[in-house]
Amino acid sequence: MRFLIAGLGSIGRRHLKNLLSLGQRDILLFRSKLSTLPEDELEDIPVEVDIHRALAAKPDAVIISNPTALHLDIAIPAAHAGCSLFLEKPLSNNLERIPELEKAIESGGGKVFMGFQYRFHPGLQTIKKLLEKKEIGRVMYSRCQWGEYLPGWHPWEDYRKGYSARSDLGGGVVLSLCHPIDYLHWLLGEVAQVYAFTGKLSSLEIEVEDTAEIMLRFFSGALGSLHLDYIQQPSQHFLEITGMDGLIKWNNADGAVQLFRNSTHQWEIFPLKEGFERNNLFLDEMRHFIEIVEGNVQPLCSLQDGIFVQKIADAIYQSSLENCIKNIS
Question: How far is CA 219 from CA 44, 99, 125, 309, 312, in A?
């Protein structure tokens, strides 16, 4: 199987290392050569700087890990060429070219997997099973928070120049930290309405929003609150889901799930298996993508899931701009 990796920043390098660790050796790189990371590990891998020449090498699959606003510049021609796509989150920086992408996929016949790696987190997978078993009864509301200090993300580079800090590259906390939007949709069902405030509240030298407070109403009737920021030190990422019959808690710091049952007034703990590392999420999603390309499984996170996250992100921005509730169509 031949892979093309488009974008060799930190996430592209991670995907490259994981492909190699999974025994994949037929790899081609498409890059701008603007990355601030060392070049040593890329020396023996062929490189193209023109996407059409890269696609002429007939890759089976394209991993799209360049800046958010440039995703579809790669995805659309790759889809036309019949390649299967691993699209890093989010799908794009807006909804404008998504119909063009859908037509290209239909024309080329390739498959699409969205890279929301938290769907592979054992803790969140445990929560999904608990919810399916109705262990806490009917879900009433959820609370989720992810705050992480932006300058600490990539200490080797100037945070002001990274894509997360730049509007022209699709930055901003809503898009850059959109994983909870996806996993809340995955765990609790489709979102019907959004009401949000976004803004640049800190002294960070960036041109995008660094904070978002988001209210969600799900079609099930449940409510949700989501907080995202580029500010918090130390970082914090947690989820709580309250039902009529109990409570579920998850904290990314230790990855464990806590289940409180009202009937017994006791907690049950579901710890992560010993030896779990963050890279396990990325390895598992890459294994899954290989299985998708081989035709063995359907995507755990589909193009339609990616489009739904994009619609919610767009509604968040519009709600904040217009100071009103936005319906998700």
Answer: 51, 25, 22, 15, 14
